[in-house]
Amino acid sequence: MYVVAGLNTETEYYRSKYQSEYILWINENMAKHNTRGDNIKVDIPEPLIIKHIKEKES
Predict the structure, then answer these.
(1) H or E element at residue 28
(2) Going by fewer Cβ within 10 Å, which terminus of the chain is more open, N or C?
């Protein structure tokens, strides 16, 4: 399990089972494209860290 969290506030923004899912989430939610699609602005509220955590066993 992977967690995308804020470095300063430790706010958990997203959890995913696979690394590829959090990259897609960052691209979809933090990147802004202009109308032509040639200029990308990434608007991230704070530095993010990716943590690998162990899933709890039931």
Answers:
(1) helix 19-30
(2) C
